[in-house]
Specification:
Layout: H1 17-52, H2 58-99, H3 101-123, H4 131-157, H5 182-210, H6 216-244, H7 255-279, H8 283-309, H9 325-351
Helix pairs in contact: 1-2, 1-4, 1-5, 1-8, 2-3, 2-4, 3-4, 4-5, 5-6, 5-8, 6-7, 7-8
Bound molecules: protoporphyrin IX containing FE.
Protoporphyrin IX containing FE is lined by residues 24, 28, 31, 35, 39, 74-75, 78-79, 81-82, 85, 111, 143, 146-147, 150-151, 154, 185, 189.
Length: 356
């Protein structure tokens, strides 16, 4: 069967596609950073209890206090790229979501359970015993599963060749396990979450150290070690992922392939520099370079999607029916929303809700 016959007709867009593409990249970057802090932080809090037992652990408690905030940011910073992705690639994303609809819809319920378990962990921390291990186990398992669902959906959406499987299985449980890129891609994302999670621990305690907390230095080192080791593991994982990608994704004779190569090399270099800074606990420099690495990786990931979809579609093909007001209103509300979040964080920090 010709898979292109399964691609629905896209809708017209109100402004040029470049606007949506830029906003997709920016908001997805915010989602990736918060998701990494969330998943990595949860794993670190969990591992800390797993190896040291149910006795209270200051680091796990500290991470637990922040977790409900971080989940909220991850989810909200996920909504915006979801909207832009639907505007640009809705005909692909809707179809792949239908193929795995049962699993995809379960995501909402799983997220609610993860939210509850993270709240219970911190609100009942003092009275919990074995729950200090079990609740983070539940939260972490759900996060890892949700991330796996995302990797499945996003690889399936760019592979219309895999869609005809739907005619043999309409249960809504279709995954993309036959795709050789899936597992390396997923592991690459998760290792990056451990790294950034560790770095966020280091950054948090670096601020505390600067404010005179004598205990903070050991957690700065601890967070930096997570960052370094996870990033070092991520180099071979990244090459495994690269090796699993079809040649056309990094064919430098195409524009997307050349940009892929350029930003891939850039991200390897900035990743290495960030590890060098983390090695000597230079947390701010390590954070700057690590964020540059994440952003470049996001660009590389986008060029990969462009290459996969080239036989079928390019966002430039979308019909534009000019209507500027909704976009202008969106940009104003988006900027106001970000300013409001910054103000909220400042107030929360001042009143000690975030800090203590
Ligand atoms: C809270 C648990 C979540 C985790 C662990 C998570 C993790 C991930 C991961 C790992 C990816 C990259 C997958 C890949 O490319 O292979 C991803 C992409 C994405 N996530 Fe999340 N996510 C979460 C929640 C959400 C929510 C609630 C939304 C939306 C409401 C969302 C929106 C998105 C979007 C739109 C993308 C893809 C963007 C693109 O392809 O350009 N995420 N997420």
């Amino acid at each position: 069967m010709d898979p292109s016959a399964l691609i629905p007709q896209p809708d017209a867009i109100p402004v040029s596609w470049g606007w949506f593409q830029g906003l997709l990249l920016i908001t997805f970057f915010l989602h990736m950073v918060t998701m990494n802090i969330m998943v990595g932080g949860a794993v670190i809090a969990w591992v800390n209890h797993l190896f040291k037992g149910p006795a209270p652990q200051p680091l796990s408690r500290e991470i637990g206090k922040k977790m409900p905030f971080i989940i909220a940011f991850t989810v909200n910073f996920g909504v915006a790229p979801l909207l832009f992705l639907q505007v640009l690639y809705g005909q692909f994303l809707y179809t792949s979501s239908v193929l795995m609809a049962t699993l995809w819809l379960s995501l909402v319920f799983l997220l609610i359970i993860a939210y509850y378990s993270s709240y219970t962990f911190i609100l009942k921390y003092d009275s919990l015993r074995i729950g200090r291990i079990l609740l983070p186990t539940l939260t972490v398992s759900i996060f890892l599963f949700i991330a796996f669902l995302f990797s499945n959906n996003l690889t399936m959406m760019q592979n219309p060749e895999s869609w005809p499987r739907y005619f043999a299985d309409q249960s809504g449980f279709l995954l993309n396990l036959g795709d050789p890129t899936l597992i390396p891609r997923y592991l690459h994302f998760m290792a990056s979450a451990l790294a950034i999670g560790g770095l966020s621990v280091a950054l948090f305690y670096e601020f505390r150290r600067k404010r005179g907390d004598g205990e903070a230095q050991r957690w700065v080192q601890y967070g930096c070690s997570w960052f370094m080791w996870a990033t070092l593991i991520n180099f071979p994982l990244g090459f495994l992922f690269l090796g699993s990608l079809p040649d056309f994704t990094h064919d430098v004779s195409t524009l997307s392939g050349a940009l892929f190569a350029f930003f891939l090399i850039g991200s390897v270099v900035s990743g290495w520099i960030s590890v060098m800074h983390a090695r000597v606990n230079r947390v701010f420099q390590a954070t700057g370079w690590a964020l540059a690495t994440v952003f470049q990786m996001i660009l590389v990931r986008d060029f990969t999607r462009t290459a996969y979809l080239r036989p079928y579609f390019s966002p430039g093909d979308l019909e534009v029916r000019p209507e500027y007001l909704p976009m202008i209103l969106f940009l104003i509300i988006f900027a106001a929303g970000l300013a409001l979040i910054a103000w909220m964080l400042k107030i929360a920090a001042q009143t000690g809700e975030v800090q203590s």
